Batch of 3 targets.
Target 1
Amino acid sequence: MIEKDGKYLMTFRVNGKDYEQLVSVEERLLDVLRDRLGLIGTKEGCGIGECGACTVLMDGEKVNSCMVLALQAEGSEILTIEGVEGSGGELHPIQEAFIEKGAVQCGFCTPGMVISSYKLLSDNKDPSEDDIKEAISGNFCRCTGYTQIVEAVHLAANKMKK
Amino acid sequence: MKNLKFESPETLLEAYTLLEGNEGKFCLIAGGTDLIIEMRQKKLRPETETLINIGLLNELNYIREDNEFIFIGAGTTHAVLSGSTIVKKYARFLADAAASIGSPQTRNRGTIGGNIITAAQCADTIPPLLVLDAELKLVSSERERIVPIGDFFTAPKKTAIKADEILVEIQFKKPDTSGKAVFNKLIRRKAVAKARINFSAFAVQDSDGKITDIRIAPGSVTPIHMRFPEAEDMLVGKVPDTALVKEAAGKVSETMVKVTGRRWSTPFKEPVLKTMAERGLLEILEVKND
């Protein structure tokens, strides 16, 4: 890794676009996404890997971006909430379903919830309620709107089958 | 404070070389699920100058078996461990323990090696590994040694690993297929919860119901991870009835209090551990009718 003034040059791909960034060791993937790339859809909640507000996909697996040093993401492919929408900016069926079912209250957990749902529905087209609960078990909603969120993921699954 | 440096070796050999002569200046990072929190709380050892990222080393990411043993690369994530066909076949309770850790997001990053090296009292994979009599392979550029996991924990959150060593592999003998094992975890909610108390045990009984092998390791109840031999000794060689199981469960609780002394949490943990031990033992033992 190329070092310059105590920082390191990293390259990675976010939402289909290549980036090169000079980052310090302490910076987390979350910090680079939000503060350097301006992708502020990914939220910081607890900062200790519990609440899942900062969930992104890293090489296809969901991770808490507060629990990954940016330099550990060198060479990886990241998907954030900004990358979920269609190329024309249209909402993803999961996002539509969240709106239709009233699964968004304060909205802070929503990006993480949508990413976890996106991963679930990529792997499993017809999830059971238990599958959905397991998939979002690392995402906390402090408005406690879980019932609507589970309903929204069911609806999204149906929309995506069509 | 000086800027931390970062190295991301591409091979284990390169990592061993970086660690040569290390007297604490280097700190390894694998999944980072504990270390990143420590970094942000400014709790890294003050002498740390460089993080060495071993999280990308495929050499540490495997689960293999031969006729007798199972070998797990220390970089295996909890997600991979909990889904492994080999682990589920021979040590389902270890897979259960890995599946109980944190959230899916945490299990995708955290590793079995990190769980052992961090040595948190609530580490979920450690009680099953104690029960499995696992051995740890520690390697540096100068030496390779195998340490039984029962000898590895030296003080709270301290282990016998040397500064120039890397934990590369966890190995254990395939348990006797006639044996039964258990891992139970007491938690405040179903996910993303640290264990309040863990209980893991393994037992083999012969055709007469006599216990020929019994291993008991509670978790989150003692400063250092350990087996509870006094309770094991009460059971081995006996054909258990419910009274004996109750007595042994009482001994488990008693041993905890002997080790820790009476602390603020003892009025809670003493009866709860006894109950968990009794339930756990009854899950794995064929008990003769009274």
Target 2
Amino acid sequence: MPVTTINGHEIHVDDEGFLTEYDEWNEELGKALASQIDIDMTDEHWDVIRFLRSDYKEQGETATLRRVTVAGGVPTKRLFQLFPKKPAKKMSYIAGLPKPHGCV
Amino acid sequence: MTDTTTQAAPVVPSFDDVETDRKLAIICSKGSLDMAYPGLILGNAALGEGVEVHLFFTFWGFDMINKKTMGDLKFTPLGNTATHMPQGLGGIPGVTHMATSKLKKSLEDLDIPTVPDFLEQIVASGGHLWACRLSADMNHLTEEDLYDDVEGIISASDFIEMTEGAQLLFI
């Protein structure tokens, strides 16, 4: 498993760069991950990321876009604005979670 | 990109933010519940990957966007050997209803949206819905009869023109 260093945080990642250790994440790291993919975090971004973190803890898997909309209450349209083009992957990257593997 | 304290470049996923012109056109020609989903699922997945998606509803696929039928598509084992049921069963009254309820239940258990909800999600994700002119004329339907987010009733040639360079799926 590769180890990479982002803004002084040494983290375990998979081959693509997604964090593999849930507990290595904190919000400061989240902010650093976001800036790696050119996303400036706002309160709205954080609401989504915090939902993903807590949902993962409960469900054991990363929420899909649909789940963030239905269970997290953030409209799909807004997710595409906050995390342009590939919202599901970008959100999970910032949240330090694996990519969602659900189809919908 | 921000500064990092490492000498080596950090491992960061490539989200291909460079503008891609990848486009996917999906022709939905079936009106049964089981055949409505492949187009919706693939279209939705493509949108999540930043691909421009156009769905064209034609012939029986019109049932997916007709307000009267879209929430009530059916699934029948009749003529579908993949259900591995004796074909005679499919013709018994009530079997289609039963099979439809069972499929709906399985989809719901997996949190798969209903057809109208799925269309709503696709539109919210930036997908485009188009209705086929000939199918509308044959069934005497106008935009009033169709799901509100259908962008227009267009001819087959309009659709072909609009999806120049797209990858195409016929379902």
Target 3
Amino acid sequence: MPLGASRFGLLGGVADLGKLELIETQTASADSSVDFIDLATNSYNVYFVTVNDLQTSATSNARIKFSNNNGTSFIASGYQYAFQRGTTGGSFVETNSTSDTRIKMSLLSDTSTGSSGNGYFYLYNLLDSAKYSFTTFQNISSFSDERFAFGSGVLPTAETHNAFQIQPSAGTISGNFSLYGIAES
Amino acid sequence: MAVGNLEFIKSVEVTTSTSSVDVTDCFSANYDVYKITTNDFSTVGTLQTALDLRFLDSGGSVVSASNYDYAYLNMKANTTFAEVKNTNQTFIDNIFGVPDQSPEGASSVTYVFNPFSSSSYSFVTNQSALTNASSVMKGQKYIGVLKQTATMSGFRLFEQSTRPFDSGKISVYGLASN
């Protein structure tokens, strides 16, 4: 049987307005990466990131890396992920890894006119030193054809991750990237 | 900080061992669409347990009739993916993930559509991420429905394997439409 609310930290009860809180928007233009640092300055349990009009200087896909030193360097091993990708051409592909140098999201672009990637991802527990850092994501890319991807990833190391990086697999990256905190999460 | 239209309604934080949490009176006529975050759920013991969903009706009673349908894609980092689907079930299985003991755990985002409407079914979409005892990651992409044209006032997150959880936070938000 469920325990009474008094056994839990029960909060709220009436609508409390404005809980998707914009922390920062970065507009990249032919940059090597997009880095969000100083996460501890605006501490949330769950973050939400939008990616709009991602374009790259070469055929490339965007990846996520975490940092435990506020962006001085980004961790380059130990990532896991699994995602499903589908295309308007009709192919559906599973992709996964238990030991990669980054979290792949299949968020793609190339140099052709109109090519871009758009999507979002959530980040969980980054600032909790006792927990793993998780992400869930969904996106659409206009590439050689239109394609979607959804999936999850984790860096299974219990430590504080106070920065993250969006990096292209090749070339440079352009686009709009917004970081939000989900208050009360 | 910019103010948006994601409006906080309620949070319930689990800090003691339990197998069930009711989030009561979180759905209302104020919203059609709700967002639920479940963050950092982990079990008391080392065995994984499935975190399931049932709705609470307008009187707060648990809806356990065989009116739940669901389907999801189970995406593991170390093996091939699996499709799972069921109709006419008494609950929505696994939707909040299958966590085990910290630092492994499960987190998810769920959207609920029309739960308070007495003329529509209550639909859910969800995406989650978790790791098991071997620290292997699994993600899920989920759809589900309660096939009842009745008002729902809240929901229950529960496990039924006698593997209680003692950590986790549920937050419910309304998506303002005007």
